[in-house]
From TrEMBL:
Keywords: Antibiotic resistance, ATP-binding, Cell membrane, Membrane, Nucleotide-binding, Translocase, Transport. SUPFAM superfamilies: P-loop containing nucleoside triphosphate hydrolases. InterPro entries: AAA+_ATPase, ABC_transporter-like_ATP-bd, ABC_transporter-like_CS, ABC_transporter_ATP-binding, P-loop_NTPase. Transmembrane segments: none annotated. It holds the Pfam family ABC_tran. GO terms for biological process: response to antibiotic. Coiled coil: none annotated. Residues 10-240 form the ABC transporter domain. This is Lipooligosaccharide transport system ATP-binding protein. It comes from the Bacteria. The keyword Translocase applies. GO terms for molecular function: ATP binding; ATP hydrolysis activity.
Length: 312
């Protein structure tokens, strides 16, 4: 990727991570620019979390080159970690302490004075919409509240880069949208976001650029819009038939749309005009149980690139 050294906060070249005979990350190249939201999209086991652990300076690379702020994690790990905020896949809050005490203790790990910690805690609880729960124990909080507290805690050292590993896994739709709003505000304030996700709507909502990973490799890179334009069509027609074997209908739909994908429970017809494709299906004398026209998503991109859905 292009850009000056000051623009690019994270640069990886041939980055590799192996565990015995298993290769989790297989020689990937990527760069993250200052102030952007950069995502790793892929199913479980694609290598996203292993990559994030190397970027977070808690797991050494097996091969290749990795630089953060122009420094090597192998020799400048503590200096780099001091400039990072990390939101792990699972919350690691102390549920016996109060909301504000969780932030106080974390701030002291970074050597902040008691005065600084209390000031930052007040700011961060307001940001996370948890000010009214400052004195509450963590244990009874909802999943969304705990996730916002984990993010607030990760910001106590005013990090330049915030690493988020599957930030909204397990949250209900409303809690996810609240969290997206908080992350959008962080990005606008100048914090660089790096996240992993297997939710295509999350990647489309949050990421300026992303890479699609599969089996430890990067199979595509670009903005959500550019990837959809490159690898999919404007619309998708979803068809469900009464018979379980949807593959039997694929040949009958030849010429309807640009291509057809067969999933266990439905057929996907990729086309720039979903309504016309639906009409063509009926002209062929086929009568699906249901038909739905929708816009293409990153899920369709991943299916085209790998032959499987993100949730496989």
């Amino acid at each position: 990727m292009t850009g000056t050294d000051d623009d690019i906060l994270i640069r990886a070249s041939g980055l590799t991570k192996t565990f015995g005979d298993f290769t989790a990350v297989d020689g990937i190249d990527f760069g993250v620019r200052r102030g952007e939201a950069f995502g790793f999209l892929g199913p479980n086991g694609a290598g996203k979390s292993s990559t994030m652990r190397m970027v977070g300076c808690v797991s050494p690379a097996t091969g290749g080159e990795l630089r953060l702020f122009g420094q090597d994690p192998a020799t400048h790990g503590p200096d780099i970690r001091a400039r990072l905020g990390v939101v792990p896949q699972r919350d690691t809050l102390d549920e016996e302490l109060t909301v504000e005490e969780n932030i106080w203790i974390y701030g002291r790990y970074f050597g902040l004075s008691r005065r600084e910690v209390r000031s930052r805690t007040t700011e961060l609880l307001e940001f996370a919409q948890l000010a009214d729960r400052a004195g509450s124990k963590v244990e009874p909080l909802s999943g969304g509240m705990k996730r916002r507290l984990t993010i607030a805690r990760s910001l106590v050292n005013s990090p330049e880069i915030l690493l988020l590993d599957e930030p909204t896994t397990g949250l209900d739709p409303q809690a996810r949208h609240v969290l997206w709003d908080r992350l959008f505000r962080l990005k606008r304030s100048g914090v660089t976001l790096v996240l992993t996700t297997h939710y295509m709507d999350e990647a489309e909502q949050l990421c300026d650029r992303l890479v699609v990973m599969d089996h430890g490799r990067i199979v595509a890179e670009g903005s959500p819009r550019s990837l959809i334009e490159q690898y999919s069509t404007r619309e998708v027609l979803e068809l469900r038939f009464a018979e379980d074997d949807h593959a039997a209908y694929a040949d009958k739909l030849f010429g309807v749309g640009e291509r057809t994908e067969v999933l266990p429970d439905r057929l996907l017809v990729y086309t720039d005009d979903g309504d016309e494709a639906a009409a063509a299906v009926h002209r062929l004398g086929l009568h699906p149980l249901s038909s739905l026209v929708r816009r293409s998503t990153l899920e369709d991109v991943f299916l085209h690139l790998t032959g499987r859905t993100l949730v496989d």
